[in-house]
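FOLDING PROBLEM:
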Amino acid sequence: MTEAASPAPRKSLLASPATFLMVLAFLNWLGYASWSALLNNFAKEAAGFTGQDIGILQSVREIPGFLAFTAIILFWFMREQVLAYLSLLTLGLGVALTGYFPSLGGLLLTTMIMSLGFHYYETAQQSLQLQLLPKSEAPRLLGKIAGASAVAQLIAFGSIALIWQLWQPSYAHVFLGAGLVTMALTAAAMLLFPRFQGTVTQNKGFVLRKRYWLYYALTFMSGARRQIFMAFGGFLLVERFGYDVAATATLLLVTYGINMFAGPLLGNLVGKVGERATIQLENVSLIAVFIGYALASHGQFGKAGALVAGGLFVVDGVFFTLVLAQRTYFQKIADPADIAPTSAVAFTINHIAAVFLPITFGLIWLRDPAIVFYIGAAVATVSLSLSFLVPRHPAPNHETTLVARAAAPAE
């Protein structure tokens, strides 16, 4: 009896949208984390990058994110699930090729391939999450998905740190191995999972609605401040404080070891305190992190500077999970048929600043890295101000506190 009954739970697990989304998130971050853990050191040691070069690379990396709205066209021909699979295969290919092109031109090419996969996957999975997860359970389940992403990053960074300490392999071999593993596991997922589809037919075409303006604004500011951290937070550790591959990977290992447990807890927090308070908490933490980075870059913490900067890196990585509150805010105010096209448009909005910001700030970096982080604190302050317009209980026709006041009866 036991043997006959055993396939049922396995089949039930594979039929779960939450399991499906967790597995795909795991694969996405397994590939991307392997790439990001090695990038700064590979760029510095093998390609001789300066701050300006890393800014150019990061700007190019974000071009596919800026063009994410074109996923709407792809949705005319394929389901979000198919796009997610193809994107993960592309991501793995880009990672696998990276180590064979140690030059500015070569890294621009392989980064573009990797980034196409990463950003189109992110667009597809955001649409899938908001369509497949019930509103009442979305914060908790998104937190579990964030935890699965953290596990993938934990495995990637831990493996790289261990391999680097034991064998000192070439960059090319590590990039190749990470890319091939990502592609192989994606192929397995394609064979194992059934078809998943939302209950509401999605609108075809580009959707920009006036009542979503606050979501668009929060998304834009989130992209701007996140890009500053992504492009320059890790590079500060390498250039200013001399973090090597093992140290960088270990720091990331700590970050995602915490996130493995913090992700589900923070998801529950969003469900308990609401999107408004969560977005405010996220931005307060980011203001503190950016100011701390600026002070560390000027040596204000003395001999402890490297430790302080590393600690700030971990704090930012943990609190970034709270960005899921923006997704659940949109899920609560959106027309269900708008989710797929709006996810694509919002992802483009998120990356508007990302295209020009790294290369511009790369030039500022050459003058004074602290200025870059003070600007990041200013961006987070604007985002904090916007968060006060998020209602405590968002819903259609109750998208902002301004709408709520306008609808209130006169006294």
